[in-house]
Specification:
The structure is a homodimer of 266-residue chains.
Chain A lengths: L1 H10 L19 H4 L6 H10 L1 E2 L8 E3 L7 E7 L2 E6 L5 E7 L4 E2 L12 E4 L4 E6 H10 L1 H27 L2 H18 L6 E3 L4 H8 L3 H13 L3 E4 L2 E4 L2 H8 L18
Antiparallel strand pairs in A: 1-8, 2-7, 3-6, 3-8, 4-5, 4-7, 9-11, 10-11
The structure holds a DNA duplex (30 and 30 nucleotides).
Chain lengths: 266, 266
DNA sequence: TTATATTCTTGACCTAAATCAAGGGGAAAC
DNA sequence: GTTTCCCCTTGATTTAGGTCAAGAATATAA
C-alpha cells in the first residue's frame, strides 16, 4: 500500500497505462549506469520525454523482426534478448546477446531496416528510443552526440574482437572467452561476476560461437572436470578466472576498468 | 604547363606545401562518391577546411600504430591499407582492408586509442579528418551527423556479415565471399567489378579469413580449375560471378544497389 | 647480372571439431 | 499425475582444414 502510493507520487502527472508503463529515467535503478554524467536537469527531462517504455516481452516474443523498418533503438532494462539473422540455407545465425543496460538496433541505422531479429530469452523489458528524436536531441546536446558516436565505435570494436575469436581460436578458447565476456558484462552492471545465470540455450551459444552444440556441451563438461567452472544447467560459477583467461588467450584490453560512460539509456 | 597553371588557379590562395598537399574536396575526383549530396556551397567549404591531406604513404609504411592516440579518422584517396591487431601469441590478426573511398579509425573513437594498426599495402594517399572538428561540424550540420551515424552503422552491419562468414562458412565460401566483396567495393568506386588487382598477399587474405595460407592457395587453384576465376598472381578476373555467389552462400542483401550516401569524404 | 629472400603452390599427413547416433533429464502440456 | 517434447550430454566416426615439408616463382638486394 505504502509502496503503491509512493509509486503514484513518483509517476506524478503521467497516465497510468498497464500496457506502456512509463517510468522516468531519473527514477530508473540503472540511471547512473545509463546516462552520461554530464546530462542532468533540463537535458535529462528532454531525454526522458522521447523515451518510451514498452510492456515487458515474454520469453520467445520478438522485439523486432528481420526486415522490419527501423524507427527506434532499444535499451534492455531487465531480462535479455538474442539477435539473429536468417542464413541462406534457412538456418539462423545468432549475432548477439543483449543484457540489461545494453543496446539493440544500431546495425539498422544504415539501411533503415533491421538486418536481424530480436527475441526475448526470458521475460524482458526494454526502453524504446525513437531514433529521429534521438538524432534531433543529439544535434542540440554535444555530449549526447559524442556518447552516441562512442557507443557505436565500441560496438565496432567489440565485433572485431569477436571476429578474431571466430577466425582464430579453438573451441575451448571461444567458450572461455564467451563466459568471461558475460561475466564482465554482468559485473559492469553491478551483478556478480563469478556467479550468474545464462538465459540462452547451449544451442544459441554454439550458434553464436560458430560451433556445434555437442562441442559446446563437451567443453562445459571439460571445464567442470578441470575445476574452472561449476555449471548446473544454466547456473554458472566461475571458479578459476585466471586459468580461463589464459585459455581464452585474452588480450589485456579485455580487463580494462569499467567505463561508466559506456551506456546511454536504460 | 597548361595543366600546372590550371591547378594553381584551382588551389587559389592555398600555400603550396610539398609535404601536405592540399586539394579542395570539390576538386577531388571522388567528390561525388564521398559527400552527402545535400552538402554544398558554404558547408562544403567548412568541411574542406578541416580536412588535411597527408603526403602519400609508401608500401609498408604505417598510417597509425596500435595504441596510438586517436585524433582523426582517415579516408583512403588512392591505394589501399590493411588494419591489423596483435594477438596474445605475438601473431597479427588482419581486421580489414581499406580501398579508395573507405574509412579507417572508427573503431578508435570509443577508447580514444587505436585498437589496431594501419599499414599501406601499396603507395597510398589518405585524407585526415580531425575528429574533434568533425564532431563540431556534425553538431552544426544535421546531414553530416546523420551521415556519420549511418556510416558507423554500416560498419557494424558489415562486421556482422563477416562474423557469419568466419563462424559458419567453409573455406571455399569464405574466399568466394571475399572476392565478391572486393569486386563489389571496386564497382561502387567506379572501377571494374570483374577484373581487379589484389594488393594484399595471400597471407593477409588467409589471416583475414581465418584460414591457413595453404588453404587459400588451394582454393585459388580450385576456383581456376573450375573456371570461376582467372588468377595470375594478384591480378584477378571474375569469370562466373553467378556460381561464386552460390558458393559464397550469399544473402540477397549483398547485391543491394550501390548506395551513394555510403561515403563521407575522400 | 647473380644472390637472397619472400611469397606462393603442391603434396602427405594429422588433428580438432563436425556429424551421426543414442540416451537421459527437465519443463511444459494435458 | 503422466506424457510429450525439447534440451543437454556422451560416445563413435568422419572430414575439412591445419600443419609440416619441399619446391617453384617472383621480388629485392648486392
Amino acid at each position: 500500500m505504502q509502496q503503491k502510493t509512493q509509486q503514484s507520487k513518483l509517476r506524478q502527472k503521467k497516465v497510468v497505462d498497464f500496457h506502456v508503463v512509463k517510468v522516468a529515467c531519473k527514477e530508473c535503478s540503472l540511471h547512473q549506469l545509463c546516462l552520461p554524467r554530464s546530462i542532468t536537469g533540463a537535458d535529462l527531462e528532454k531525454l526522458d520525454e522521447i523515451i518510451e517504455r514498452k510492456r515487458p516481452l515474454k520469453r520467445n516474443e520478438h522485439l523486432f523482426q528481420v526486415g522490419g523498418s527501423f524507427n527506434s533503438i532499444y535499451v534492455v532494462r531487465s531480462g535479455s534478448l538474442k539477435t539473429y539473422s536468417p542464413t541462406v540455407d534457412g538456418q539462423e545465425q545468432v549475432t548477439g546477446f543483449h543484457l540489461p543496460g545494453e543496446l539493440l538496433g544500431l546495425d539498422a541505422i544504415g539501411k533503415g531496416k533491421h538486418p536481424c531479429a530480436a527475441k526475448a530469452l526470458e521475460t524482458t523489458s526494454v526502453c524504446e528510443v525513437p531514433f529521429e528524436h534521438l538524432e534531433g536531441l543529439a544535434q542540440e546536446l554535444p555530449t549526447l552526440q559524442h556518447q552516441l558516436l562512442r557507443l557505436m565505435s565500441k560496438e565496432i570494436f567489440d565485433d572485431q574482437e569477436l571476429m578474431l575469436l571466430l577466425g582464430k581460436k579453438t573451441a575451448e578458447a571461444r567458450l572461455s572467452a564467451f563466459l568471461l565476456s558475460i561475466s564482465l558484462r554482468f559485473k559492469q552492471r553491478g551483478f556478480s561476476s563469478t556467479e550468474f545465470y545464462l538465459s540462452m540455450s547451449r544451442n544459441d551459444i554454439a550458434n553464436y560461437l560458430g560451433l556445434a552444440v555437442e562441442t559446446v556441451s563437451r567443453m562445459f563438461t571439460r571445464f567442470q572436470e578441470d575445476g574452472l567452472i561449476k555449471a548446473e544447467r544454466k547456473h554458472i560459477v566461475i571458479k578459476d578466472r585466471e586459468m580461463m583467461q589464459k585459455i581464452a588467450g585474452m588480450n589485456d584490453c579485455c580487463e580494462d576498468p569499467v567505463d561508466d560512460q559506456s551506456q546511454l539509456f536504460v
